[in-house]
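User: I'm preparing a small set of examples for a lab meeting where we compare how different chains pack in three dimensions. I only have the primary sequence for this one, and I'd like the structure in token form so I can line it up with the others. Please keep the answer compact; I'll paste it straight into my notes.
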Amino acid sequence: MSSSANSPEPSEQSTGFNPVTLSYVSRSIAIYQISDPELDRIAGSGASLELTLFGICAGALITLVITLTTVSIPNPRSFAAFVSTTAISFLASIFFGWRGIGKFLDSKKELKDLRRGGSAMQGIAAAGPQRP
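Assistant: Understood. Below is the structure token output for the 132-residue chain.
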């Protein structure tokens, strides 16, 4: 095996009695320092509630649209209830989808800032401790 100066060559070891080869490859690990509020923001900003409600509303919307297009509803009151519920599901799907995507993108941005070494908390830390 030839070794290059730029890329580490994995070391291999044969176990002898089994046709198994163990390969050891070097890795690098990046460690970031974050504060407790930053960690809480990252953990809590996954927008899971909004995306869950989006999924529920979108599923209800699909069900209601299929029902309205395939089933004949002779009672005008029932038909009006289906149409209004479809409209409400449509609006709720847009609302929760928009909020969920926004929160998801915000958490990705926060994570990207932390990986670069910056933080949204730097402005607060630069201002000094706050007094009650």
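A couple of notes for your slides: The longest strand covers residues 11-14. The beta strands are 11-14, 21-24.

User: Perfect, thanks.
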